[in-house]
Every structure is written in C-alpha cells, then in structure tokens.
Amino acid sequence: MVQLSRRQVLLAAGAAATVSLAGCGDGGDEKKDQNLSGNRSGAMDKDGVGDQFTATAPLSFSILYNNHPNYPLRNDWLFWSELTKRTQVTLQPVAVPLSDYEQKRSVLIGAGDAPLIIPKTYHPSENAFVSSGAILPVSDYLDLMPNFKDKISKWKLQPEIDTLRQEDGKFYLLPGLHEKPWHDYSLAVRTDILEQLNLTAPRTWDDVYTMLKAMKAAHPDTYPFSERFNKPNPGGNLLNILAASYGLAGAGWNFQHVSWDDKAKKFVYTYASVQYRQLLEYLHKLVAEGLFDPEGFTQTDDAARQKLASGKSFVISANAQSVVNDYRPDLAKTIPNAKIAKIPLPIGLAGPINPASRLENGVMISKKARDSKNFVAMMQFVDWLYYSDAGQEFAKWGVESTTYTKDASGKRTLAPDVNVLGLNPAGTKHLQKDFGFYNGVFAYGGRLELVQSFFSAEEMEFQKEMNSRKNIPVAPPFPFTDSEREQATLWETPLKDYVTQMTLKFVLGQRPLSEWDAYVTELKGKNMTQYMDLVAKAYDRYKKNHG
C-alpha cells in the first residue's frame, strides 16, 4: 500500500481527473466562463510568466488570515507596505486564531461572509463547500494565471492536480506547488543521551523501540517518549508518520478513511487493515513497557515541551522549526548541555519511502469574487504572489538589502540584524515576527532551490536522506457525486469518532487487541462496508470514463 502525507493530494471524496490540465490550456474547462469584460478594472492587459503584477489602479482585497501564535499579526509589517508598493494591492486581513481556523472558516463561508481570498486550506476540506456554490471553480480561470499553469507544465504536476477535481471535472482549490517532494515531520531525539548510552540514531521503528528500551533502563523514572501535536486529532503527528511507515494513507491529524492497495489495485478501509492493527500493536508495546507516556496522545504541546525541557522525556515529534524555535531554547534554559536533533523518518513495513507530496495547502476563492469588477486583477495578483518566482521569493525572504542580501551566484543571506530558524542567532529582529515574511499564509511551495534556501546544513542532510528514498505514487481518484458525498459524510463522522476512540483504547491497553475482529465487526455496524462500496463504485465509474 502507499502512504500519502498530510500535504498529499489525497484520495478524498470529490477528487476526479475528468479533464486534463493540458485540455484546460487548449480550450478546456476554464474556457467555459470567459465573459469577463466587466470584471477587468485594475487588471493588466498583458500578464505573462515572470511579469511583475502591478494593478493599473489601487485595489483592496479581503483575505482570511490564519493568525499564528509564533508570529502574531501586526499591521506595521514590512510585508504589507512592500506588497502594496509592488502591486498596488492592499490586503485586508480577517484574522482568525490558528486554533479555530478551520471552524471559523466554515462558519464564515456558510454565512456568506468569507473574505474573497481563503488561503491555508488543506485538500480535501474544500469539498465541503463545493455543492453549496460558495467557492469558485478556479479551474475555469486558469488563463488568468500564467505562472500557475507554467509550473504545472514545467514540473509535470498534472497527475497531482487532476486528483483535486470534483465530479463536475473542475477543481476548487489552488494548491501550493513544489518542484520536488518535501517531507518535514519526524522525531526529535536527545542526541546527548544517545552518546551517553553509546547508541546511534535509530533508522527503523524497531531501532526506535531498542533506543527507548535503553533510555528507560538508564532512566527508569522517565517515559522516554512523550508526544505533542495532538490537535485536532489525538496522536496527530505520531499516528500519521507511523501510518506512512506502515504503507497507509494517513491517520491522526491526516485522518484518511481509505488507503490504496497498489498491489491489489483497490481501496481498503485504513483502520480495518492488517497494517493498522500492526501499527497499534507497536504503540501498545511502547505504552505497556513504560516507553511511551500514556498522556502523550492527549496532552497539550506546552505540557510535552515542559517534560522534554525538564528531562522527563527524551523523544518528541518534530519538524525543522520546532527543533530550532522550541526544543533547543527550552533545553538551553534548563539543561544547557543537552543536544537534540530531528532524525530521518524511521523506516517501517513500507520500506524506505518519502511520503511527501508535491502539493501543499492552498487557496480557495469566494464565489462572490467572480462578480467583482476587479476579479481579473485579483486572479492575476494571486497568481503573482503565490506562483511566480518573484512573488514566492518576496513572501519568503522579504526585501533585498533590508531583510536579506543576494550575491552574484544568487545565494541569499539574511541581513546581519535579521534572524529566523536560528540561522542568524545574533540578529535582533525576526523575519516572521518583526517583518511578516516567511509567513505560512503566503510562503509555501516553489523551486527546490528556494524551498531549501532556508535549510541549515543539518536540515539539508535530513532532506538528502529523505530524497534518496522512493516517492509514493499518486493514488487514483474516486470522485463522489453530490448525493454520494452527502451520504458519505453521514457515514464518515461516526466512523472517524469510533476509530479515534478505539485507537486510544487499544494503544493504552483499555481494550485488548485480541478483540480486533470484534472491532472490525463494529465498524461494519457503522456502515464501513457500505462506505467502501460507495468508494469502489465511484472509483470504477472514474476508471470506466477515463481509463
């Protein structure tokens, strides 16, 4: 089976490839709505690949803003003023806290109050808004987005893009585009403890178990592994990276009901599979032997960080930023000699894989934008900011000679007084907090060189290892009709709730894994079989219509 990461274009409902992107560019689906003569106010007459977008008159667009606690929104950021200087566009952010972003986004869209531009949307969450007509079928307007189309063609991203399509053949999300896959999340390990115990960094999940056993033997009063990232689902990151390693489509915060069995050429219910049982057996063994903190599936990030900083744990989930921004500063205050590093994703039953996708979270456009006299200009602006080389460099690095410099070879270096990701510790200003750049609302995707331009030597080694592994093939789509999606949604919620509940019970030993068969029967009682029949029907229909 194949695993698809949190950013992966997943096999979710409504993802159909009924029209190829090549067809779009040659008179395909975006050609169906070309009556834009009254919507060109402020737009450039000629807008090509690599052109600097500058509106012909000052414009203002509302945007839903995911307010990250690590760099809270400020109105005086250089990002805002410089963006206006370059494009004549002023963005009006509607700020929503990170913790409530998805819920507030749904409320705003449902009430018809959503801003025009709705970023930070992970596929397939756009599916919920398609049938209501609240968001725009952006594939109808690709001729207004030359940079987007160019990257799709140049990087041969058509198979991934096609998986975003709905039953009507259109897609409703403009995803972030990567030239190459980029996997980030794994485990961080106290390397000074490894040195004390004469251990090397674990390469497989079996090695992780052996390492934890040695840590427990040397420090019997600890739980060597205590976890964070438990929102919105318990065990959010840990279950997901384990699912990747076991060849499944996702779990935890990347909850995916179905996984593609590439050998059998069919979908299976993820949480009734042999692989998921093996995953739970592994986690239960860690808990039963005192190697994993039982609170680790539900505790807050702060609680997990405190345990790490106080020496009560030595292993925790991580991405590149959390190691630099969280764990090392925390440990420096409490255990100054401690060392911690992110290890490559441990290898499991699926073998050495890189589960990352080349697509990332993306942008929805409110349907009401289509009626604006500035609609064409807005789409040109979105295309420049999110998909042009210049826009992506601006969003990430900021303003040359102010936040960074560039040498003759094109290598970028942070300005002497600017820091981010610990790359310039002497810097007194922060690229995200003080300037608003390298902001997750705007800065993602791009050429491999740009994506890796912020990577430390340590992170480059991590990526070198991950890029040496085989990539995951794109799973085929199974587009639901509106009525099928409505029925599937009614089944998915109780199934997800029950799987989440039983996962914790199995792992924590509150229910013995000898009752696995009974659990699968209980899933069938919650319409698992009917759900899978619906998936198979949609998949077969797609195959029949499109080969």
List the helices and strands and how they pair.
Layout: H1 21-25, E1 59-67, H2 78-87, E2 89-97, H3 101-110, E3 117-121, H4 146-154, H5 158-162, E4 174-177, E5 186-190, H6 191-196, H7 205-218, H8 236-245, E6 258-261, E7 266-269, H9 274-288, H10 301-309, E8 315-318, H11 320-334, E9 340-343, E10 353-354, E11 359-365, H12 375-387, H13 389-397, E12 404-406, E13 412-414, E14 418-419, E15 429-430, H14 448-451, H15 457-467, E16 470-471, H16 482-508, H17 516-525, H18 528-546
Parallel strand pairs: 1-2, 10-16, 14-15
Antiparallel strand pairs: 3-11, 4-11, 5-8, 5-9, 6-7, 12-13
Helix pairs in contact: 4-12, 9-16, 10-11, 12-13
Question: What does this entry look like structurally?
Answer:
The radius of gyration is 24 Å and the shape is globular. It has 18 helices and 16 strands. The protein is an alpha/beta fold and 547 residues long. The protein has a three-stranded antiparallel β-sheet. A three-stranded antiparallel β-sheet has the order 8-5-9. Strands 1-2 form a two-stranded parallel sheet. It has helices spanning 21-25, 78-87, 101-110, 146-154, 158-162, 191-196, 205-218, 236-245, 274-288, 301-309, 320-334, 375-387, 389-397, 448-451, 457-467, 482-508, 516-525, 528-546; strands at 59-67, 89-97, 117-121, 174-177, 186-190, 258-261, 266-269, 315-318, 340-343, 353-354, 359-365, 404-406, 412-414, 418-419, 429-430, 470-471. α2 (78-87) links the parallel β1 and β2. α9 runs parallel beside α16, α10 (301-309) packs across α11 and α12 (375-387) crosses α13 (389-397). Mean pLDDT is 91; it is low at 1-31.
